[in-house]
Amino acid sequence: MTQQAGTGTKAGTSRGTGDNDSFDLLIVGVGGQGTILASNIIGEACILEGRNVRSAETHGMAQRGGSVETHIRIDGRYGPLVPTGAADMIISFDLLEALRYRHFLKPSGTVVSAEGIVVPISAFQNNIEIPSADWIKEQMSDIKLITVDAGKLAKDAGSILSQNVVMLGAAAKILPLNKESLLKAVEELVPKKTVEINKKAFLLGYESA
Amino acid sequence: MVTRYMLGNEAIAYACCEANLDFASGYPGTPSSEVIDTLRAQKLRDFYVEWSVNEKVAFENALGAAWTGVRSLFTTKHVGLNVAADPLMTSGYTGVKGGFVILSADDPYAHSSQNEQDSRIYAKFAGIFCLDPANVQEAHDMILTAYPLSEEFEIPVLFRPTTRICHSKSNVGLNEIGKDGVGTEHRTGDFGKDPKQYVVVPAHTRILHKKLIEKQDAMAEHLVKLGLNRAEIKEGSKTAVIAGGIAAEYVREILPDDMSFAVIGAYPIDTEWLASFVGRHEKVLVVEELAPVIEEEVRQVAGKTGVFGKKNGCVPYDGELTLEKVSAAFEKAGIKSRRSFAPVAPVADLPPRPPILCAGCGHRAVFYAMKKVFGKDAVFPSDIGCYTLGIQLGTVDTTICMGASITIGSGISHVDNKQIVSTIGDSTFLHTGIPGLINAVYNGANQTVVILDNRITAMTGHQPNPNTGITAKGEISPTISLEAICRACGATFVETVDPYDLLLLLQTSTKAKDTKGVKVIIARQPCVIAAKKSGLKRRRLTVNPDVCIGCKACVRFGCPAIEFFDKTASITELCSGCGICAEICPKSAISQEVI
Questions:
Q1: Would you say B230 and B273 are in contact if contact means Cβ atoms under 8 Å apart?
Q2: Cα A58 vs. chain centroid, distance in angstroms?
Q3: Which of A159, B286, B362, B493 has its CA 20 to 30 A from that of B143?
């Protein structure tokens, strides 16, 4: 069974052909909001559809309430990092974070963001003014921006903790994945007790966008 | 073959199981920690696994096991290899019987590290193999290659993934464990006495060194035979690109179809093979992260071929590479690429969102008390852990490496009369703090040492340590006493406090300040995340808006659960009920919620 790297599934110096062969997206937010679960659902949906996927996550100290970013390249065959100015989509769990990472978006891309802003605690301590939601939206008026009241929809679904799945549902129409694969991945990855809540959260998000 | 969506570190751990791993040890460190965490979480665990006290200890345990003929793994982050460098440097001399993989995860861009050192140089220094995967699948496959390779040459293999391999996910093809006997052939150790191999007295070590040198050429040739170092020559191409590690992925994405390309996946590099590839081309661009390891080899064999890389400013020495940077390297070297990516700048001047200590973290209370009692003029040497975030509270003045809070502090205390307060976590204290404490007491330093005892190795993902009371395997371990250890080191002032008891914390700190010599305060409160996971619930705090005067004393404490709008503080659902803010509030406006 010992397999040598030279004969493995991803060996040789094989190179790509054709441009834009992956759908590149970022999932961004504040550490603890569930970006990794959202990315796992997308990754699992890719496996269900037999497609390649590459992603890169923030681990370690950056999770402690800091700004977090996950890069995902659906049908990706190379490195996991999405280049700036090239993402097809950004899913953001926080409006301020959507603006922080918008430079990754390509001009024709879409930002799907939750409405709320988690105020960074350092802003209270250092008297830094937090930009208003309207100002942030104004800064993104040149790109396609879809905002979702994720908090309300998550509560409607049965748990405020399902906001990440609401956001995924809201993004699903643009993602190049079947709704059914995503729903199946939700079912497989969320805690058993919360499957119904999360499926509802996904569908509420899906219908809202 | 099954395909799963897997984290790089999980795929590495899985491959170790496929390769019939018998023994694993390591010390947690981002980005390496999930390898052992995955191994210890396996349901059918027919191998030995431990979290060790530090990397030197872990390395030697794994080496000892490999000497008995079993397959062994040691995991660390790059800087941990410095701690294990002593045994590492001689492990090539002694060699191994069973396959021995030294996993040292590098962290270009220092996402979670104090430096950007390159482990490939260590492999060269020690005369051992180094395997450098370009992606998650290759990381998996290379582990399967590493064990037989280590056994064939009786040499340890340094396996060097980087953050973007360890913490990347991808579809990975795996050989299912248990199916067709995969991963079920385990060995029993049998140490065969051989002092000429395992006792490196001068008379033995001189011979062992010669043998190691003699192996190098065959090692290099074998890596080409295995296809780990491979070239795809395009007839008529005057230009070639050579890349190693994840840089090979960035290059593949933009490489023109008609250009020659070589991938360096392993070291030592066969010089003749490299020379023949380089010599075919007029121009070669070398793309690799961190040190110019490949580039230096290429320059040595280049002859008339023009070499482009770090040394002429095409590729940066620091940080991690991206498609944008690799695009720029092609451009600077005057090489056309199939696609190009120009960097786009982020929106400027947004409020930053740095990571912070959790709501209810006991460390914050300690830092608050330290600042209050010892004042701004005191020196606060600190260490590696979540508590390094205390820099935001003005109570972390130095951090260099594991265990250095006590030693940097004692050094300063011998030449500077300021009050010194060193902070160190429980895991870090056990890792390399103890010798520093013995030394401080022995040599008459004047400093306070605060052990921030949260009973766990928190920052890297809540791994257990000897202070936690359980092992990596989840078994109950004998109790150790930090108090007894500190007293045994010679410290006479050893006081234990609960950091949630702010008054006692302040009193104990004042007592330490007024006492000469080495004073140890053990601030003990389980990590708030670990406590929550184990089911501990405390009632949340709430602000009475009629009593709050908007003085912001609680806001300055820096707890992420405390907000401030319309001249009044409020407490969010992040609150974990530590109650420190209630003790700080001068108007007693904060109290526990009444349910």
A1: no
A2: 13
A3: B286
Cβ-defined contact of B138 to A54 (cutoff 8 Å): no
CB contact burial B26-37 (16+ within 10 A = b; e otherwise): bbbbbbbbbbbb
Using CA atoms in the order B405, B411, B413, B414, what is the torsion angle rounded to 10 degrees? 170
Residues 478-537 of B with CB under 8 A from A: none
Q: What is the mean pLDDT of residues A176-196?
A: 97
Task: Report the b/e string of B167-186 with b at 16+ CB within 10 A.
Answer: bbbbbbbbbebeeeebbeee
Amino acid at B33: S
Query: A200 to chain B nearest CA, in Å?
Result: 24
Kindly report, residue by residue over B58-70, the tens digit of the pLDDT: 999 999 999 999 9
* Strand, helix or coil for residue B198: helix
The verdict on a CB contact (< 8 Å) between A13 and B262 is yes
Query: Degrees (nearest 5) of the Cα angle B176, B178, B179?
Result: 60
Residue A76 has pLDDT above 60, yes or no: yes
- The confidence score (pLDDT) of residue B314 equals 98
Residue A52 sits at φ, ψ, to 5 deg, of -70, 150
**B343 to A84: CB separation less than 8 angstroms, yes or no:** yes
Cα→Cα distances B144→B99, B105, B560, Å: 11, 18, 45
pLDDT higher than threshold 50 for residue A3:
no
Question: How high is the ipTM of this complex?
Answer: 0.95
Q: How far apart are CA B400 and CA B407, in angstroms?
A: 11
Q: Is the pLDDT of residue A16 over 50?
A: no
Domains of chain A, earliest start first? 21-118+130-208 (3.40.920.10)
CA distance A128 to B351: 7
Domains of chain B: 2-225 (3.40.50.970), 229-332 (3.40.50.920), 362-533 (3.40.50.970), 541-592 (3.30.70.20)
Does residue B31 have a cis peptide bond before it, meaning omega lies within 30 degrees of 0? yes
| Among the partner residues B148, B167, B232, nearest to A2 by beta-carbon distance | B148
For A92-114, letters b (16+ CB in 10 Å) and e give: bbbbbbbbbbbebbbeebbbbbb
What are the residues facing B29 on neighbouring strands? none
CB–CB contacts below 8 A, A to B:
233
**Residues B450 and B370 sit within 8 Å (Cβ to Cβ):** yes
Q: How far is A19 from chain B (nearest CA, A)?
A: 8
pTM of the entire predicted model: 0.96
